[in-house]
Every structure is written in C-alpha cells, then in structure tokens.
Amino acid sequence: MKAIVDCNSFYCSCERLFRPELSSKPVVVLSNNDGCIVSRTDEAKNLGVGMAAPYYQNKEVIEKNNIAVFSSNYNLYGDLGMRVMDTLRELVGAHRVEVYSVDEAFLDLSMIPDERLTDATIQIRETVEQWTGIMVSVGVAPTKVLAKVANRLSKKNKVKTNCVLVLETEDKIREALLKTDVADIWGIGYRYAVKLKEMFGIFNAWQLSRMSTEWARKNLGGVVGMRLIKELNGEPCVEMKAPLKTKKMIATTRMFGIPVYDIISLKEAVATYISRAAEKLRRQYSAASFINVFVVTNEYKTGQYEYNPQTNGTHIRLPKPTAYTSELIKYAVPLVEKIYKPGPKYLKAGVMLGGIVPDMSIQGNLFFSETKNCERKLMDMVDNINFSQRHDVLKFAASGTSRNWKMRQEMRSPRYTTRWNELYEVS
Description:
By secondary structure, the chain is an alpha+beta fold. The chain has 2 domains: 1-179, Alpha-Beta Plaits (2-Layer Sandwich), CATH 3.30.70.270; 250-399, DNA polymerase, Y-family, little finger domain (Dna Ligase, domain 1), CATH 3.30.1490. It has 16 helices and 14 strands. It has helices spanning 10-17, 42-46, 55-64, 74-92, 117-132, 144-156, 158-161, 170-178, 190-200, 205-209, 213-219, 223-232, 263-283, 325-339, 370-373, 375-389, and strands at 2-7, 27-30, 37-40, 68-70, 97-101, 104-108, 136-141, 164-166, 250-260, 286-298, 305-306, 313-322, 345-354, 357-358. The strands form 3 sheets. Strands 9, 10, 11, 12, 13 and 14 form a 6-stranded antiparallel beta sheet that branches.
C-alpha cells in the first residue's frame, strides 16, 4: 500500500505554529512580492477568499473579516518542511519515503498488514503533528494515484475523516472514485478534463477507470494515460522513487521587488542568484559545467508576461566544471548583455546550473596555479561565515550593495527557526 502525507494549508500552518491565537482564525499567505494568495486556511476559504487570486482583488474581504495576512517566509517553511520529512523517515524508514514537494511525501506502507493500516496511519499523523506542530492529512491506497484521491477526500471533510482515509477494499475505492471529479485526478490537467467531459461524457474518476487502456493510449496521452487507467484500477505503475543524493540541475530565480529597466540591476540580480546557486552546488559537493540565464519581461503593447527562450534566455558551456562563485559570475554576467534590450519592464531573472558532476571527479590542470586549485577551501570559508552570520556578510562586488530590486516581503513574519535574533520567545 502507498500513502501520501500532505500538510494542511502548509504555509498558513507554519505561521499559525508560532501564533497560537490564530489557530481558529482565517489566515492567508502571499506569493513573491506580496502578489497573489498562495495559501489559505479553511476559514479564509469559507469567507470567499480566492486561491491564486491577486491580493488586491481580495483586499476588501480580507480587511472586512480581519484575516491575518503574511508574506511568504521561505526560510521558515523550508525548515519546518524538512522537519516533517525527517519525522516521516524516522517513523517508516528513509528508504520508504519519497519527498514529492516541500509539504508532501509518498510513503511505502507495504510492511503494514491491511487490518492495521488505519491505526498505523492515524499514529503517523498524530506523531507528525506532535513532533512538528504541523497538521497533516494522509491518504492510503494500493497506488499513488488512488492515494492522491484518498488524500483529497480526507481533506474535504476533515471532521468526518479525522484527516485520514484508507482505501483498502474495492467498495471503498469505488465510492471514492465516484466522489472525485475527473478534473481532480492527479495527472489530469485542465485541458484533458474539458476534453473528457465534452467529448466523452466522463465526469468522475469512476467513469474514467472503466475505460480501456487501448482507449487511453489513443485519447489520454499514450503510455501516460494507460498507466493512469491502471493506477485507478489498483494496479501500481508509478513506483516509489529512490531519493536523489544530488540534484541534476540547480536553479535560482526570483521576481523583482520593483520593475527593473537598467542592465546594471539585471547584472547584479544575476550575480546574486549565481551566488545562491553556487552555495547549493557546493553543499552537495558538485560542480557545474553549464550556465543558463533568463529574464521575464512585461511588454507594453500586450501588457502580458513574456518569456521566449530564444530571445529572453541564453546559455554557455564552461571550459571546465566549477563551483567557484567568482568563476561562475565571470561567465554568467556577460550573458545578460546578450539578452538585455532597452525599454521593456523586467519583472524577473533567473539562473540555472547544469552539467553537474561530483567535484572530486574534475580532472586537474597543470597550467592552473595552486591558488586556483584551492578555490574550494576559500568558498567553504565564505559559506561558513555567511551561514553563521546570515545576510550575506561576505559577497562579491558584482552582486551590488543597495539591491533595490530585491523581492518585496512587507508582511513577513520572523524566521523563528533559522535566525538567532528572530528565535521565538517564550515568556
């Protein structure tokens, strides 16, 4: 049996953890630059606050109902998400946990007898909540797709299900599928949902599960659709993935706090993001041999976001793999000149490091000086100082000093678990 553990309104739950007075009050969390609502509690949802809607469109409802509003606090969310995942690894074993996102993980519960599944799942939920303070919902079923169905239904009526739903019998699976709209199936996007309803009269998951795999091959994306039909019928096709020890690609990207028009600010942003990506690279003892730089603009004529890989992005292959920030900046910043055009309003920039290899596998070069070959020691020292002191105490000049373009977080709560001077105080 497979299970998926999903944190309830994760970002809001993280905020509530350190603000107990908000435990039964409506809360919302905003996206980068306080733009859109990316997390909301059930109380906020019941008041009519829209998910993924712009903040300004919901501002009247929020102020009228005294809804607590927070800017995204990624340091806090990342740390608490890691604690949830570590708890799950402790409970079922690291090899039985597949982290799906910052607030979701699949579990392999094949070692638990069916008659004990419900009790064991409840114990997992209660332990996570007790150890981390984060409320979770758990769905259990023979396949990942069915586990997703179970998880969604467990959240739909938290009081009735106690945030746990186990689909261990055919009758329970059929009942769950009948209650699930075809648009809510994991793997069915908006376009396919419309197609299934309008062209084939398929409105729920049970109807879709009755279709043949041959039909799915022709009408539901080939092999992917065939696997989906099998998963809905309890036949596992999407297996648990072993945890990746190292990332194959590392990216850092942010929306700007204010629109950017000049190339100097763009270069500073790219240098800053390269520094962040290089830290992640060194953390897994790797080096990159490929850099991609891109920007997102807002064209005046259309008023729409624009990202064209041909004109808004470019890349370069490095002479040799490296994790040295200075070296990466040297090759990344000039790429901005290739994609910058005067006039457009630049809303976002980002960098991606690829061609990642273990740093111990890089071939030495007799023509490099000893200082060049000792770059890892220098960067380790910089990383250690920045990690202990925070706020980029040491940074490269190319990253700038004022950084007026930095992301706006006007309503961010303290980083209670990752900053000494912001630790939660108990009186």
